[in-house]
Amino acid sequence: MKIKFYTIWLAALIIVTISSCSSTTSTARLYSEQSISPDKVKMRTVAIIPNRMPITMQDPEYWRNYNWQLIANDFTARGFRVIDYNTTVNLFTRSGLPLEDTKSSRDKYADFANEINAELVVIPYYGTSYNMQSGYLENTHKYLSVGSLQFYYAPKNDFMARIDFEGTFETATSGPAAYAYMSVFPMLIASASEEADAATTASTVTLIGNICLLIRDMSAPTDPVANWKTAFQSGISKATSAFFDKYSPSVSNYNYEPTKQNAAPATSNYASFSIEELELLKKNAVEKKDFKKAAEIKAEIDNRKK
Description:
Blueprint: H1 2-18, E1 22-32, E2 42-43, E3 45-48, H2 60-76, E4 81-82, H3 85-95, H4 103-116, E5 120-133, E6 138-153, E7 158-174, H5 176-192, H6 198-219, H7 224-247, E8 250-251, H8 275-287, H9 291-305
Parallel strand pairs: 2-8, 3-4, 3-5
Antiparallel strand pairs: 1-7, 5-6, 6-7
């Protein structure tokens, strides 16, 4: 009877302690511009700008690249053409696109979309956080990846939608009381038993139980980068699905008519200057901390050297 009891108890103990539970959840909420009818959205080419606000995450360039690929995969899987990462980053760096949603910023995005030849521009914002909730028997670890995707639609020269998303990867490790419980409970059974070898059996169960707890905790998925990756995969997938559910844009060779402010290049005011003169003007602008003007002059110089 004693052997049967300890065998059942030990089997249950091993199953519970070896298994390490983890889960992934995600949410997405879409806000849309009512003046843009979902059934009228037509596009073929998409440009995805890297993260605009990396202040809430470590190694922002790594996450820019990683999440750019996640979004790009979702669009290419549906047949859309996505401008490659390096081209987008280079043009984005030159353009000095603003953060705020104003008329002048929409004109800037119109210039950018026209230059890169894309109907849709996706502007993401990302952040990561970690939280641990200490428990009596179990510690819960939460890895949260949050973000917002803003969608600029060039044919209407307007921001058509914004999607806020969250992805959470949750796992658990043993709390300090679990080890104490594992040591005390078998001893209580042994003290209540009249069997001669009950103490030896209880010690064996205690040892095996503690080893199971150690194995569970050592094998728990607590690598932050891997867990934030999983959370971003879930959150971004949820966000892009919400976008396609709302708009169901057609894949076509649609070419939109550029907005009027694109009739002349933004740097045409410098057309009469030589490259040497432009270099001096750029240097002077930098010294005066007029970085917008310096960026415009640099763009003119780069265009001349093509």
